[in-house]
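Support request, please re-run this one:
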Amino acid sequence: MRFEVYCDESRPELFFSQQHEARFLMIGSLWLPGELRCELKEKITTIRQKHNTWGEIKWSKVSPSRVSFYFDLADLFTSYSLDVRFRCIAVDHSEVDMALHEHDSELGFYKFYYQLLHHWILDFNEYQIFCDAKTNRDSKRLCTLQRCLSFANLSSSIQGIQSLPSQQVVLIQLCDLLLGAASSRLNNTLKPGSAKEIFVKRLENKLGVSKIGSTTLNEKKFNVFQIRLQGGW
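Re-run finished. Output below.
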């Protein structure tokens, strides 16, 4: 079966500087069968038409005037049950030992990208991965990531990893929205009564969880992998 994966990151600056109040760097991914891509995009267009909202879908744009638009996007995501899935990795930047990454923060960042993707790649499937465009010091980072994933998953096919501007890819934008919700819970940045908190509570209700947080690997719809760099159970 052919799958597509759309990825985005939240607070990547935490990997390059310790001067931030937030605790977790997060990388997110939206997974769906390739055959559903056009249908999902068409339904998002229908939601845009309903609310007359045509700008970029983005966590930072969740506001009182647009909250009903974002409600419908959350409802759309949950309506697909396990056919459309979300997974993110949360990295506590205070636990990262850069010596393990050759004191190269960019290398460390992509090692965690690998951890995000590797554990959801299954045998005998094909995967096309799309990442939000970012400027890397080493232009071969995505090629190396693809090669590492291919070597670790010999019975599956990693057909490509592409860097695309999120402004042009609505499914990367949807990933940004879901990742923002997860990041806001783990980093405890939600303001009581705000549009963002109302949105997150709506999403949690649709997911059937009391509060978005770290999950087990067995969680397939909205998986939050809080990696424990200091070991333990």
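Residues 2-226 form a domain with the Nucleotidyltransferase; domain 5 fold (CATH 3.30.420.10). The chain has a mean pLDDT of 90.
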